[in-house]
Amino acid sequence: MLISKILNNNVVISEENQEEVILMGRGLAFGRKVGQEIPDELIEKKYVLSENRRQLLMELPAEVMEMSDKIISFAKEKLQKKLKDSAFLAMADHIHGVLLRLEDGIYLKNFLIWDIKRFFPIEFEVGQFAKQLLSAYVSKELPDDEAALWR
């Protein structure tokens, strides 16, 4: 696959079957330029990118996409389910929104947190994982309410 756009050392945009795809892998783009081939063995993840999602992707910081990938991978492992490729970009968009909200000092209260913990413990665990990633990213401990908002 040829590199169409480099987002960072680990994330590039390419084309497959006339569709744009996001390719992820450790050091995938390191030392490479647009137009160069990506060896298949370096590609760890591939997400199909629909046309209407392309613009959204261009606005998201690379760190947000990496967090999204980590959360989606953790969710797949914990839930033992295959998630749609669209979950990656939906999660990235959600993370970006959370970061913008936190920048403005807006914290949401989730009044269903105890129900979510009780009835959806695995999903809440995924939310806790996401909360920990975001807490580390913003260098501030976020409340558990944030973990319950990921469901």
UniProtKB/TrEMBL annotation:
Name of the protein this chain belongs to: Transcription antiterminator LicT
GO biological process: regulation of DNA-templated transcription
GO molecular function, one term: RNA binding
Pfam families with a match to the protein in the record: CAT_RBD, PRD
Domain PRD: 59-151
SMART domains (UniProt xref): CAT_RBD (SM01061)
PROSITE patterns: PRD_2
Gene it is expressed from: licT
Database matches in Gene3D superfamilies: CAT RNA-binding domain (2.30.24.10), PRD domain (1.10.1790.10)
Keywords noted in UniProt: Repeat
